[in-house]
Amino acid sequence: MTSRRIPQPKVQQNLNVEVQPLEGGAHLKLIKCRPKLDYLLRSRCRLAFVIISILAMLVVVRSGINASRGYALVTTQNQTQALEQENERLRIEIARLKSPLRIKQIAQDKLGMDVPKKMYFSHE
């Protein structure tokens, strides 16, 4: 009998061959190979991570901007309310100062003016 040679698979650089003896003098060849890395999948995952990170940062920055705008709005509303109260106080002060009784009293007391007893009108 002639022995036929069984073609051996070509071992690539990323393969690891381990020989284990079996009973009866036979040997078992275990081929361990490193998993091939899918660089396209890895780059897509990196891109997805970067995009998600950028979007998360944008959300955080936008919420910070909205919060600062809210604080500015509250400050402006408080200033508006204070100015409206001051305006109302000034209107009351103007109305008090324009009072005819007050003007008559100042004219009589400080300026020595009196209401005339007789009035003359001329029509020309």
Layout of helices and strands:
Blueprint: E1 15-21, E2 27-33, H1 39-97, H2 100-109
Antiparallel strand pairs: 1-2
What would your notes on this structure say?
This protein is mainly α. Strands 1-2 form a two-stranded antiparallel ribbon. The protein has one domain. The protein has helices at residues 39-97, 100-109, and strands spanning 15-21, 27-33.
Q: What helical percentage do the residues reach?
A: 55-70%
Mean pLDDT: 84
Integer tally of domains: 1
- Helix count equals 2
Structural class: mainly alpha
Quaternary organisation of the protein chains? single chain
Strand fraction = 5-15%
Largest sheet: 2 strands, antiparallel
The overall strand count is: 2
Rounded to an integer, what's the Rg over CA atoms?
Answer: 50 Å
Order of strands across the biggest sheet? 1-2
Q: Give the terminus-to-terminus CA distance.
A: 158 Å
User: Secondary-structure element sequence?
Assistant: EEHH
Shape by Cα distribution:
rod-shaped
